[in-house]
Amino acid sequence: MQIYWTKISKIIEESADVKTYMLDCPEGFTWEEGSHTHFALEGFNAGDKPNRSLIRHMSISTLPHENSIGITTRIREQCSEFKAILRRLEVGNEVAIFKTHSNVPLKREDKNVYLLSSGVGLATFRPLVLDYFERADKVNQIHSLNIDSSRDFLFTTTFASAPDKKFTSQFTDNRQDYYEEVKKLAADKEGLFYVVGSDEFLVQNIEVLREQGVKPEQIMLDKHQHQVADFLSYDLSM
């Protein structure tokens, strides 16, 4: 396993409690849209075993051509040790990234794509949308639906409806409106539904999609394959 040590080049205040840490691209480090990485703080590998409290699984919110690795995360007032340390870091501080992989690359199957996310889960989808804008091959259209009760919606420049590009974007601040919209989108029985958020959020979305007749193979989750199978084993008869 190769560990890439790199420096924070910029810290962007996305909202009151969301920051994007822009990291220098280490030589030889590559990734694709929808990628996640293990993001670790200094000292995580100082002992005989890795200190897992200093490691988090994070989505990369940028594409390689942006020449920077973006890590977008919410840091609340009451937070974990990891987030508390992260909040104190400054431009020039070093962090580590390793085990980078994409579970949700953009599928190009001549279908409509629906991106369903909660809060900062939108960071996972930003690269998919940018990749689609650059090359729309074999994607009919993309619709993004995000729920964020804080109302501090993220990446509103990227996630702005663009009819000429066959891209539409919706934001909602409550679950009732959100799931009503999901039901409407699920009327497309051939569409591909990407879902990113907490495990509870994934389960609720899968339940709604399956009840509307969406098949498990149409649902994409940012999880390892064996975890995906567990999530999609939802029993409609229950």
TrEMBL record:
Protein name per the record: Dihydropteridine reductase
Record-linked SUPFAM superfamilies: Ferredoxin reductase-like, C-terminal NADP-linked domain, Riboflavin synthase domain-like
Superkingdom of this protein's organism: Bacteria
InterPro entries named in the record: FNR_nucleotide-bd, Riboflavin_synthase-like_b-brl
